[in-house]
Amino acid sequence: MINELPVRLWLGWRRLKSIPTESDWEDFKANLSETFIPATWEFMKEYKLQTYVPSIFHASGDRGNPEEVALLCYLSKEDYDKSKMHFMGRSYRIMHQAIFNFDGADRVSTAKWCGPVGSEGPQIKKAKNGCIRFSDPNASIHVLMLSTPTNCLSSNQLFDALSNHHGDVAIWQKENFIIVWIASPRIFNESEIGEQFYQLLIYSCATLVAFHSAEKFSFPVDPHIGIPKKENKSWHFFRRLDQN
To answer: Which residue ranges make up each domain of the chain?
Structure first.
């Protein structure tokens, strides 16, 4: 059985230029795919990063949905904290600041550890014994983005509606959107999320705006190319415990 590992979630918005250009979004995607995503996987392996699921969505407006999100599993929170005391970890944070926005009232990029169901901020409903965890290399991880303009959809309702997937479920709910991560024993398509889930969307006037089945990526990243430059896409990087 795979051990439970702490789960950290990230919501990211690109840093907007004072004088926007038509190439800004393409440049951002290139920075993510050629440098930021592969560097995260390579740098943070020194601090026991076991699972990394980055997702690129679409360009958003001044107060839009996040443009890049991620799920990360470390062997421990203490392992992650060690990165703050090393130049590699400090350079990793500087790299964030170069392409992501951290200022203002809106579009503020942030990361937090998941708490239990009912806690403030991102929450995780952990898989029951024998079910799939995010840290399991055999997991199929799916990423959903919901638009919630009426803000009448609760995390508890979503956890109940997604209980048919027999794995970890993490939810980060904000004012106008919700990001959901699902660990499953198999890849499923959008129509298989579940009838209860779609009934809940209708009841709450919410919309499913993105659905990703993360592409598995276990081999070393090409240091010259990185990963393919795409949008509306998720990747699933993972390490087995015997690779540490």
So the answer is: 7-243
